[in-house]
Amino acid sequence: MKVLDQQEEEFSARQGEVLDAVLSLLVEGREALTMSAVARRASCSKETLYKWFGDRDGLLTATVRWQASKVRAGNWDRQKLDASSLEESLRAFWANWLGVIASRTSIALNRVAVSHAATAKSNLGAIVLANGRFAIGERLKPLIEAGREAGLLEFDDAEEAFRTYFGLVGRDLQIRLLLGDGVELTEAERTREAARATKQFFALHGAQASQT
Questions:
Q1: DSSP letters along the chain, please?
Q2: Are 96 and 70 in contact (CB under 8 A)?
Q3: What are 74-104's pLDDT values in tens digits?
Q4: How far apart are alpha carbons 86 and 78 in whole angstroms?
Q5: pLDDT above 70: percentage of residues in the chain
Q6: Which of 57, 14, 20 is CA-nearest to residue 38?
Q7: What CA–CA distance (Å, rounded) separates 193 from 34?
Q8: Residues 80, 81, 83, 84: is their CA dihedral positive or negative?
Q9: What is the pTM of this model?
């Protein structure tokens, strides 16, 4: 069975433009994000925003999902999964994640979310957790579970395995980005980092690793 990694929520091209407008406002430091400000930037009415997204939290949730949807595990065939295709899919996923997380839009979104979580200014912190980090975990876990079913990986709990992998890839990158380190990863560097973390993950959870 071929598994297609689709966006968790379908947005029209016009809705995508609106969500990109929200991200651009955040990049510019517009923390006081209002429906009026978004409507002006996106050249649409507030009524349209309320119709599409419900309210401000709904708009923020859609924005986070839109950004997180850029991280995908690709297409893979559960019945034909072997060590090579599993490693390739995992490396591609994490190289993709590194590119998204290091983008100006993700950095701005995460900075605002941390600020709002600390002051209870909005629900953005919880929204980013639920629709960003947790949603991405749910997107990858079917792949590593398929690797276990194929006898390529060994672990007791998929969430624990994902957290381990997440730490191997991310290391201190996110905190450095949030604190303005100015990290810039080229495509080659993202590919290399993803390959390094994948090698380490297989050293911990690869089926052969448990036999040594």
A1: -EEP---SS---HHHHHHHHHHHHHHHTT--S--HHHHHHHHT--HHHHHHHH-SHHHHHHHHHHHHHTT-----EEGGG--HHHHHHHHHHHHHHHHHHHTSHHHHHHHHHHHHHHHHTS-SHHHHHIIIIIHHHHHHHHHHHHHHHHTTSB--S-HHHHHHHHHHHHHTTHHHHHHTT------HHHHHHHHHHHHHHHHHHHBTTGGG-
A2: yes
A3: 677 888 899 999 999 999 999 999 999 999 9
A4: 10
A5: 92
A6: 20
A7: 38
A8: positive
A9: 0.85
Tokens of 197: 């973390």
Tokens of 114: 């941390």
Q: What is the dihedral of CA 84, 67, 183, 139, to 10 degrees?
A: -30
pLDDT in tens, 130-188: 988 899 999 999 999 999 999 999 999 999 999 999 999 999 999 999 999 988 899 99
The gap between the terminal CA atoms of the chain, to the nearest Å, is 32
Structure tokens at 30: 């517009």
**Structure tokens given for 198:** 């994948």
The residue type of 142 is: P
